[in-house]
Amino acid sequence: MTKDRAAILIIDDSPLNIELLNQLLNDDYDVFFATTGEKGLELARDRKPDLILLDIMMPGMDGYQVCMSLKASEPTRQIPVIFITAMSSIEEEARGLEVGAIDYITKPISPPIVKIRVRNHLELKRHSDMLELVGEELARKNRQLEVLARQDGLTGLANRRFFDEALDAEIRRAIRSRKPLSLILCDIDFFKRYNDHYGHLAGDDCLRAIGTLLRRLFQRGGDLPARYGGEEFAVILPNTPADNALFLAENLCREMYKLAVPHNFSDASEYVTLSVGVVSDTVFQTHSTEWFIDQADTALYRSKNLGRNRVTQAVSQDSN
Fold it and tell me: What is 7-142's CATH superfamily?
């Protein structure tokens, strides 16, 4: 088939009818044919024509059965079908349209009418295909925008907006399930000094490295590492009791130290380190996102006041 020309499949058990339609159309289109319904279905699936001209009265599968099979199959259901037949009653025409044909041409055919109808339906198909492509592209762009709306552009982590939505949802889920919920909040120690002395490009590299570390450490379904803002990061840990959350937070500090990102201007270490606050609660009563964040933030500042590069845990009174 020629790439720039539409393809037409003729399904008819009469070689004479096939030859007539071929002579009429092959100057403008790529034409191929089948003399049985079964072969026509096979060609339709394999070659995906732009239009099918289909006879009704055929041995084996008749045209109605072929059309219904075409419309029932995902690969062929969008191919327009025109019945070309000697059956001219209103009832037969209505039946043909009901099974999925878009038009109905009676024999003996009028060559100018056939050419016009074929041209018009191919033009409609072309516009339909274009609209479908535009729709698919818009859907793809919308999916990309949805991801971007939830993702921090620098680190690839969830952004603050998504974090707030997710924490609220996890609190409500924890209330229903009576399962523990934990939150880690961490801050890069002396990050302003790091930026001032190593430059903002190096600072961005450092933030990206921490984003990669968080994604590596928190891969359990439901865990959500996020960039909370600036040099602050957070991790939501559903169904995580206090002892597990403390272990995970301390492991985060250890793994951060192992990255060995030099920080010669830190009072806490020779490398970039984190101060961490963690809160855990079995949410038997309603707690807001603000409550969890305030508890974690208070614990985080205790870590800073105690010398940084450490974890402090705040556990509510009704926690186990």
Answer: Response regulator (3.40.50.2300)
